[in-house]
Design goal:
Layout (H helix, E strand, L loop, with lengths): L2 H8 L3 H9 L6 E3 L2 E3 L2 H15 L4 H14 L4 H45 L5
Antiparallel strand pairs: 1-2
């Protein structure tokens, strides 16, 4: 399929597809001057979206795709590296979550203090 059909099928944009090609995440076959996208490209696009939905950046996705290209899908080295990246990302998200919980608690306390001060203000009914 050509790019128009590819972007319509995957509800994306030509710019996104070209960007992923530039990053070598998508590698359509070339016939003369045309790019032809196959089911592998559809599957790769789905993997990119899934990894991004987990919070991985495109640089991390690139590393995983490069490793997949070097050692093959299902290779223990690829799986180990994937586990490592996902574990690191999970730890980072947990750190962010803890920080957010502290900030939320601080904000709730400040909000309660402002509400209390408002209620104690003379002239309030």
């Amino acid at each position: 399929m050509q790019i128009g059909e590819f972007v319509a099928r995957l509800s994306t944009t030509k710019e996104t597809v070209r960007h992923y090609e530039d990053l070598q995440l998508l590698t359509p076959t070339r016939v003369k001057n045309r790019r032809i996208y196959g089911e592998k490209d559809v599957a790769d696009f789905a993997v990119i979206l899934e990894l991004k939905s987990m919070g991985l950046g495109l640089k991390e996705v690139q590393l995983l795709f490069a490793l997949k290209g070097a050692v093959g899908c299902g290779d223990p080295q690829l799986l180990t590296q994937t586990v490592s990246h996902l574990s690191d990302h999970l730890a980072s998200l947990r750190d962010q979550e803890a920080e957010l919980r502290v900030r939320i608690a601080q904000l709730e306390m400040q909000l309660a203090q402002v509400k209390q001060a408002l209620m104690e203000k003379p002239g309030r009914e």
